[in-house]
Design brief:
The structure is a homodimer.
Chain A (H helix, E strand, L loop, with lengths): L5 E7 L8 E6 L2 E7 L13 E3 L3 H5 L4 E5 L5 H4 L2 H5 L5 E4 L1 H13 L7 E4 L5 E4 L2 E7 L8 E7 L2 E5 L17 H10 L3 E5 L12 H14 L4 E4 L5 H13 L3 E5 L1 H12 L13 H6 L5 E5 L9 H6 L13 E4 L8 H13 L3 E3 L14 H11 L3 E5 L3 H13 L14 E5 L4 E6 L5 E4 L2 E2 L4 H13 L1 E8 L11 E5 L8 H16 L7 H20 L4 E8 L1
Parallel strand pairs in A: 3-5, 5-6, 6-7, 11-12, 12-18, 13-15, 13-16, 14-15, 16-17, 23-25
Antiparallel strand pairs in A: 1-2, 1-19, 2-3, 4-21, 8-9, 9-10, 10-11, 19-20, 21-22, 23-24
Chain lengths: 551, 551
């Protein structure tokens, strides 16, 4: 009898950016790689977060052996609290990732019951039939790793998020030697980051940003205010280095930036000279030429420190002519509008604003096409699955892989929920498991469905009109004019005539009632009549809600 | 006594992209350049269009002499129907622009009363004290022009939207000689397109796209389906040329594309060999290798032909493996999500999809930095106002102008509504006129305000909860449990317990009523109690609407 197949099951990150989660399964052993979250897309109105669908893990609860985290970004670890609330399972990650996860679990009051293990590159963890080895990769957060997973069919390489940076900030190279060893041995399957599979050439080194920041700080006549991701510790280090080199002190603002800088300093991930970081009082006493500020808000988040500066309501920093603001980040898709509104407002306040389109103040954390080719050439996998990308990125990456050596037909473009089975003879998509978007809204997890989102979309378009009809329980006729309430539809004061006419429409729609119709019918009669009348008069389609009160 | 100043008043397009409109005023003469519309931004929920604020024109109605249109794009002519509904004034534009305007005015039943004049480059129109000359520019629509406006203080140059393309498709060059003559004569003021003021270098020529389209059609194994803007007639010509060169027939789909191709053919703006355009029946009978399709939908518009193909519900075209889809357009900011959803879906259906990031299938219609410098060097204006751009584009463009010769302090970054006054001695921002966003929603023009938009935003986030309390008119107590209706908040069936408790909260909030409180107070008491209860239980803040019915 033949062995059971190895099963590879993405539950997130394939066909969308974010919410990365991948299962590997062999017989009665199941391991999880990353448990990330996704920020809601435009049409997911009112949703706070989107997490992966754990249905299949629930069904295979007894087989679950361990969770492995590649690095500490939200799209790889953000849904872990929701996962650990349900599943008691050991979690393995490197030191900084573990630090970030602990902060998160503490917020969710889950730290006590979580079984967290810190590993370092080169460590091998046994999880059922699997042996999982961490290897270092260059990415836009320290301690990022990929995984080499030994399976009964041979080694699987999961790159995590990576690029090849030969002059990285904190000496965090992608371990090409280890990958080449796996390639020499014979790699069964490569899973590789597709985020920038459309981008020709090489992703520039972080070194470029370091030079740019130093030049900016050397030449700026006043304060230099740098906004970046709070998790981009290496960038924070670059800002600190540039400040030191140009004789500036550094003020840190924004809650998550303050927390992360403190945590990174404590764990030894930031090298900060004594006395460099200053408080508000010292900042106020120093000439602007001797100041640098590190802040949150690079994504235009409404309550972030940079947005407050741009709106002129930051508690400690009032933007003036002579200030230089550096956006050392790219706008994540969906955030462009908010980011550029800040840029515009900062310009209006007189600041010089430097951002990616006009200065080399950011480089991406993901590999471009030439780097992806190098990985393919070194690992030479038998099978390939592009991960981490929208569908087109995966397609483009699969083609690239076939162009540089993956046998035709052996590159599989999967979608969340697809089950790829690999055995001794071949690989094939063998089925699907549930992998829908699970919405978190307030305390609700998974209770928001398409129906509710459609209602929110309708409400957002033309508002709501509520009609309360008080009818006589014997005759079914109105006992007094209907009450009408609107929100988000028209200005009620200006449109009192329209609303008066609407009350008449309600009256007319019930005038023919000569017996007691059931409430459902009365309501839908009123609703139709009012909806039609309002559309004719305004060409708008508010949501009409009708309540009949019988007296 | 000194002469009155020349006044330059932007009513749109400065600080935003779209809705271009500019006033020039001298004593009792007022002229208008462009009357464009803007598509609503994300937070303008349910708004159909945004048009300029005509308040100041209304006040100066007697001074209004003429409207000049630079070209036929919506952001330059789209609000003309709303303008001509109010103001009886001659409109001057080139032939294709006029054709597009006529279609639009006919839709609004305004064609009869409009006074439309067709001009050609070189024509000079007298409008009060002003003399306005049209000059040709290269842009992504035929017949695009800039304007040279003679004023009592000297000539003003308005570039319209332009780039410098030395190998344009329809021989439509930017008239550098005419601009150099104005420069030699001494230009008072230059108003120039800032859209790509951040972009280094030169915008590539349309020729590049022509080559790419021809290569794609030569090599594609099946149909080639090209999506572009319906107004981008020169691109349509390029598709036709490529089809002719590679032995393909052309099928046109999408209402606005069909209309525009017909109009452009009629007016002689398209060169189409006899028998090249085919109908559905012929399309069905031809092998895919001999077919090209031109379609709308390059912006992912929900009901467009390309979106229907991507969703598998186009009436005549079912995407299959072997099809090549070309997106010959860039996603306008705000449309990226819809555009890339189509790309992903087309890939899923098996098509090869070519778009800007992976092939040279589109070039922009606006000048990049090196081109902007050339215009500055040729025109050498005394004063400069960057137009057509978000605020940061204007700032960057003003700096560029000062770097290449505009005297320091003579480049003015204006915002919509600013009044720039120029006289014999200087120029200065002398005041403001109303220039707010005027929202068109259905039949309503300008009746949607921030208050209504805030309500829509609130409704879209957590939905609405309607509470109807029927109270005894003597005691002020509930006569029966409150009626509660929700939309977009929770699943009512799953949350019946929550709603039951909510009814109890209503009852409790009225239990203390020992006299007849006024309705306003009763309503706000219920509203507060319900809002608080629901937030505690769900961490959501639906809009709570309360109606008290007295019986």
């Amino acid at each position: 009898m033949s062995r059971p197949p190895l099963r590879v099951i993405p539950l997130g990150g394939l066909g969308e950016i974010g919410r990365n989660m991948m299962l590997l399964e062999y017989a009665d052993d199941l391991i999880v790689i990353d448990v990330g979250l996704m920020f809601p897309e435009e049409e997911m109105l009112g949703v706070d977060l989107v997490i992966p669908d754990f249905t299949y893990v629930r069904e295979r609860r007894d087989a679950l052996r361990a969770v492995f985290l590649t690095h500490g970004h939200e799209d790889h670890v953000g849904a872990l609290p929701y996962f650990l609330r349900e599943f008691q399972v050991p979690v393995y990650s490197t030191r900084l990732t573990d630090g970030l996860v602990r902060v998160k679990l503490a917020e969710h009051r889950l730290l006590d019951r979580a079984e967290l293990h810190v590993v370092k590159p080169g460590d091998v963890i046994r999880a059922g039939v699997f042996e999982v080895e961490f290897f270092q990769v260059a990415h836009s957060i320290p301690d990022a790793c990929g995984l080499i997973i030994r399976t009964p069919y041979g080694p699987v390489v999961h790159t995590g998020d990576f690029k090849l940076d030969h002059t990285p900030v904190m000496n965090q190279h992608t371990d090409l030697i280890r990958l080449a060893q796996v390639g020499a041995e014979g790699c069964l399957l490569l899973l590789a980051d597709s985020t920038y599979a459309e981008q020709e050439g090489f992703t520039p080194s972080e070194e470029l940003v370091g030079h740019a920041l130093r030049n900016i700080m050397a030449e700026a006549p006043g304060r230099v205010i740098v906004a970046t991701f709070a998790s981009l510790i290496s960038r924070v280090q670059q800002v600190i280095d540039a400040a030191v080199a140009t004789g500036r002190k550094v003020f840190v603002t924004g809650r998550s930036m303050i927390d992360n800088v403190a945590m990174a300093q404590r764990l030894g991930y930031l090298n900060v000279p004594e006395g460099l970081l200053i408080g508000v009082d010292e900042m106020r006493s120093l000439p602007h030429r001797q100041l640098a500020v590190i802040t949150t808000g690079s994504q235009g988040e409404p309550t972030s420190a940079l947005t407050r500066m741009a709106n002129g309501d930051h508690r400690h920093i009032t933007i003036t002519k002579g200030d230089t603001v550096v956006l050392s980040a790219t706008a994540i898709p969906g955030n462009e509008h908010a980011v550029f509104r800040n840029v515009d407002n900062l310009f209006r306040l007189g600041a010089n604003v430097l951002y990616n389109r006009v200065a080399n103040v950011h480089v991406r954390g993901h590999a471009s096409r030439e780097e992806l080719k190098i990985i393919q050439s070194i690992v030479q996998p038998e099978y390939f699955v592009p991960i981490h990308g929208e569908y087109r990125h995966l397609v483009v990456h699969a083609r690239l892989a076939e162009a540089v050596g993956v046998p035709e037909g052996n590159a599989f473009v999967l979608t969340d929920g697809d089950v790829l089975e690999i055995d001794d003879t071949c690989a094939r998509i063998a089925g699907r498991v549930p992998a829908s978007y699970v919405y978190v809204d307030g305390l609700g997890i998974g209770d928001i469905d398409q129906h509710i989102l459609r209602d929110r979309a309708h409400l957002s378009t033309d508002g709501v009109v509520v009609v309360i009809a008080t009818v006589d329980k014997l005759t079914g006729k109105l006992t007094r004019p209907a009450d009408i309430l609107t929100r988000g539809f028209v200005d009620e004061a200006e449109q009192s005539e329209l609303l008066d006419q609407c009350r008449e429409v309600v009256a007319k729609s019930l005038a023919l009632a000569d017996h007691i119709a059931d409430f459902g019918e009365v309501n839908s009669r009123i609703k139709d009549a009012v909806g039609r009348f309002l559309y004719e008069r305004t060409r708008r389609r508010p949501m009409v809600l009708t309540v009949t009160v019988e007296v």
